[in-house]
């Protein structure tokens, strides 16, 4: 029997009195691409950030590749993991942010090798070689030695993807990777992501790009008000939504 | 209606008569200052010339520089720790560090210096041990607190409070997304601080720290009250004998100016180092401030 790459069960999260996640159930299988849709404030970012424990969940559980994230369960008791152990878990999960968050004081190639060399202890020469291969893959090999601020938004986001891939993650999380981009730059980033999907990378993508969901996603999940309202293959959810909330949302974005 | 056909090439420059007036006034004032410096015999330039290279002055300069370096080093290390404390999640650490900054910034450094120097009135013996319990080691305060140590404590501990605020401001100016990206890559907190946050904060920390070094250089002259032979104390002890007060103070000022000028150049180099990647433009050459020609900033290829 195999385990799912991600299994979220009854995930709950609140900020003060605001209950943001009210019991999220989701399974993502190895090699699957899941697109998460939903209105603003529905908790999509929060859920993604719970998966790599940037936020600590208040209830339920998240397993990634069979490992409980952020906690340790033994003998019927559950305790928080130490910071070092959380850090180790995060190395297996790549994340791409809406605002890119490249390190502006390092060149592109330094951004890519920083974690493999500093965290995994990979030899610098080998990491550089891989970095150049990754940059070639996102179409930016000739930009290896410039600083991020000298790049366009689309180029920066592709570097951010290469930087996350350099840790050889089992799972990639994308939080609205194209929302901060000018419309003409969106395509280049989505093309890179489509390439990753075709190579069999497991991905959870929060996006408003319905075209991308239709074309690349294996499954679309619609979230609203802290719960998963509907989930299924793209043609079902996007063309024959069951829930009125999904219908209303799609009516607004399509 | 048709618009006239105009070519702005070769347009006449705007005139600035007020600039001319201001320049002439300043030049006249400058000339008067020079003439005062040259013609007034009370400056006793021959005395200045005799002392400016004197060995005893050199020893004073050495003490001044040594104090500046050590007190600044104490201040920076303490400042980093205090800044981390004030930004930490531990409320006790936050309060303690806040209290420290409040106290040391709120009292005159001269008072602090004298207080450290006279610590033995307060604590005849310094000892380490369990509070209200047994002592492990103890020493006579008068032996332990030499004038040099009192000066280092007075200046360094005070500097720590100022550096803490400068460093805290620098750290807070780094976007939170940077820490988040580093965490998502599996970097530890310490590594994130060292490799990601601090280098970016340096851009905001260096310029005010440069001013602090220059202030510190001059603040070391306060130690003359506790009889430590720095540059100022040295010239004072000479003119107390020879009554050549003005020329000897000029000697001291010349050296202070000389050192601050060197510090200024050093600061420019450090600032340039930490400006890496901060703008879209290629970094300007350090010596560019010497050229008056305004160069077009190079366009960055994208
Ligand atoms: N750190 C936080 N502290 C307090 N409230 C928060 C925090 N993070 C998120 N929230 C709140 O949680 C709710 C869900 O936020 P979240 O960012 O997950 O929404 P989202 O679905 O990603 O929306 P968007 O499409 O606008 O990105 C919002 O109401 C937000 O204000
Ligand atoms: Mg969001």
UniProtKB/TrEMBL annotation, chain B:
The lineage of its organism: Bacteria, Bacillati, Actinomycetota, Actinomycetes, Streptosporangiales. This is Amino acid ABC transporter permease. PANTHER family: L-CYSTINE TRANSPORT SYSTEM PERMEASE PROTEIN TCYL, MEMBRANE COMPONENT OF AMINO ACID ABC TRANSPORTER. GO terms for biological process: amino acid transport. Residues 61-267 form the ABC transmembrane type-1 domain. It is found in: Cell membrane. It is a multi-pass membrane protein. Belongs to the binding-protein-dependent transport system permease family. Keywords: Amino-acid transport, Cell membrane, Membrane, Transmembrane, Transmembrane helix, Transport. It holds the Pfam family BPD_transp_1. One of its GO terms (cellular component) is ATP-binding cassette (ABC) transporter complex. GO terms for molecular function: transmembrane transporter activity.
